[in-house]
């Protein structure tokens, strides 16, 4: 299993509120990146968000040794040849620690950037884009003329470090599933229930089989985690977040997602229905899976809430459903990375990179302490 953390703003104890959001700057991202690396996460997702994910990721390479940067790219905003060159540069400079997350946004977001493709045309575009990108990354000289993309004699001056740069992807519509089945290595879903995840996995795998890729694709899930020593303390922490979800914040977030053409978002919104019940447990849509976060943010809106044992059990449910990758986060990102890494990560079958340094504990037996650290 691979476990990634999250490295994108906004952040803070209550990032949807002015008084709960934390100032973000380069030094703070360095701290999170160093923590994620030291704690032994497989990597971190840099989504499109507060900062440009590629510049942010590149700037953090010197502060990390092991972790994989999973960096989001919107196909309609870039030439596939330019992205291939960015990939090669990043992969070389990070010594093969790049994964690319192909994302499609939604019509409103894309319009801000000057792109006005319909939902399914965005995926038709992405299909052409990935065809060209894959060819370039294989070292081919590519001439391609499609409906949207026309490149002539394109090629890369240098290869990436990795023979195969992994392409990841999120998108829940039928058009998205078709593209994922054809091109993608790791298909991601926001945190739906294990049953919903399993149904998607079946569908995407069946489509991949048509391209002879049933075993070439694997699956991941993006979840918040609210873990505490006891279940009671975890729900108290969720209650604290809930108490800070004022009416204006909920109304603002729900207005943003109303009428959005993202199927993934529609599926997330359906898990809470856009209204805030008095009792937060009414939003426990499956054991320990809470949809309350979606009330105040678009995109990933669910959290696993519980004791370490419960969180590990629920993750096992996802693994039984076919999930091999977890992208987790908490609020704030820095403190919750430590909490998750100490309470949950040691109980997951993750290949962790041993952090530098030795563990020490207060002990009267100095000899034993010296032996343990030798
Ligand atoms: C784990 C995950 C991460 C995502 N990250 C981004 C992102 O960084 N930027 C973005 O615009 N969309 C992101 N998305 C959204 C999807 O790429 C996609 O645009 C959205 O689900 C709409 O497509 P759909 O209608 O096929 O679901 C993400 C989705 C998932 C599941």
Features:
Luciferase-like_dom, LLM class flavin-dependent oxidoreductase, globular, eight-stranded parallel beta barrel, FMN, binds flavin mononucleotide, TIM Barrel, alpha/beta, 374 residues, two-stranded antiparallel sheet, oxidoreductase
Q: What would you note in describing this structure?
A:
This protein has helices at residues 26-39, 53-60, 80-93, 107-112, 119-137, 174-183, 194-210, 231-243, 247-257, 263-270, 308-321, 333-343, 366-373; strands at 2-6, 43-46, 68-73, 98-102, 142-145, 150-154, 167-170, 186-190, 218-227, 284-286, 289-290, 303-306, 323-329. The chain is an alpha/beta fold and 374 residues long. A hairpin with a 4-residue loop joins strand 5 (142-145) and strand 6. The longest helix is centred in the middle third of the chain and has 19 residues, at 119-137. The radius of gyration is 21 Å and the shape is globular. The protein binds flavin mononucleotide. InterPro entries: Luciferase-like_dom, Luciferase-like_sf, SsuD_RutA_monooxygenase. Keywords: Flavoprotein, FMN, Monooxygenase, Oxidoreductase. This is LLM class flavin-dependent oxidoreductase. Residues 24-323 form the Luciferase-like domain.
- Element pattern in H and E: EHEHEHEHHEEEHEHEHHHEEEHEHH
The rough form would be described as globular
Strand order of the largest sheet: 1-2-3-4-7-8-9-13
CATH architecture: Alpha-Beta Barrel
| Largest sheet report | 8 strands, parallel, barrel
Please give the alpha-carbon distance between the first and last residues: 30 Å
Q: What ions, cofactors and ligands are bound?
A: flavin mononucleotide
Pfam families: Bac_luciferase
Keywords: Flavoprotein, FMN, Monooxygenase, Oxidoreductase
Organism: Ancylobacter oerskovii
Protein name: LLM class flavin-dependent oxidoreductase
